[in-house]
Amino acid sequence: MNVNRCFLKDQIDSLFDLLPVQLENSKKTIEKNVHKEDFMYFRHVYIVASGDSYMAALAGQRAFEKYANKYAVHYHAVKAMEISRFNEFTDKDLNEQTLVIIISKSGIGSRVIEVLERVNALNMTGMVITDSIDSKAVELAKYSLYTDTPKFTNDRPALRSYFAAMVTLYLLAARFSEMYGNSMNMETMSKNIHDYMMLYKDKIAIYDEQMMKLAEMYKYANSITFVGDSDEQSSCNFAVSKVIEVTGIHSKSDDSEEYGHINYFNHYVSTNPVFFIANSLNSNMSRVLETIKQSIAVGRPAYLMINENSEIEDIEGLSKIMLPSVEDDVLQSLGSYIPATFLANHISDLLDEPLFRGNIYPEGFNTIRNSKIVVYGENGNEIIS
């Protein structure tokens, strides 16, 4: 009998009850806090985070670029460390037109606080998307969006909060679209998200069974690779984080071009699978298929997670895992990590692996929260506090 049990599967199963509640809660906080007269003048929008939240930022950036692409506004998904320690902000006029949206469930991480303190010092505008209404981040940010995600008994490692962050970002992109006079609005976006995610409900049992079989095959893998381009980078990175957090197995993500340059040359080809996540609506499919063939040619087990309304050639040696049909490619990132998360869950249970390898932080070394906060000025050479 297992001593340890992974709860990622439980969180996936809970998404369909969470979905309408999260849509309503996220919509409500945006309607309350985001108004045209306050946000129309921003020309640079940074979506900033660390860890899993950065993957949500990557998905969110694509939503903003697609739905709120007006007035030459630039959207950037950036890791918190880059904003807090490396990015230079020497144009004071541009700083006043810069919105920094930081995603943090807890609102207390050191880099989160560091980013917001630098934002304030340089006369930029900060917004936090958080589930912690009384956090330090809320105190520092000019605007706060409270996700108000319902509590769940076993919510570690993060999955529900990752989904909540994406839902909030997608609805925020729709709000910006409304403000700019574009066609997308929050009501339509909410319906689109709901209808697309409900397509997964009938597939959950299928993924559960498929991934259990693969978990039996690869529970002793040296490494598990996920390959996806900018359209699925968020889901690939999220899959990597879940595999590492709950199994301890090395995992890596790559895009379809870079994989052929470096990661392709890994040892242990026959025991280390490669999972490709793709969407046939995008322009990268020819390269994805080339990379799949290249991987199979050297004996790597290859699997393709792709929308079922795709029409791609059959490739000998390739196994397909079908994601729901989708007409709007941006929506796919809301759920394309689900099969890979089942895989991580089942390998963890088969190995009886403790979550986060048993919380191995030495005493006083949880540097996510205890890292020294240093606030830099316009460039990385000027410490102001």
UniProtKB/TrEMBL annotation:
<protein>
    <recommendedName>
        <fullName>Glutamine--fructose-6-phosphate aminotransferase [isomerizing]</fullName>
        <ecNumber>2.6.1.16</ecNumber>
    </recommendedName>
</protein>
<dbReference type="InterPro" id="IPR001347">
    <property type="entry name" value="SIS_dom"/>
</dbReference>
<feature type="domain" description="SIS">
    <location>
        <begin position="35"/>
        <end position="182"/>
    </location>
</feature>
<dbReference type="Pfam" id="PF01380">
    <property type="entry name" value="SIS"/>
</dbReference>
<dbReference type="InterPro" id="IPR035472">
    <property type="entry name" value="RpiR-like_SIS"/>
</dbReference>
<dbReference type="InterPro" id="IPR046348">
    <property type="entry name" value="SIS_dom_sf"/>
</dbReference>
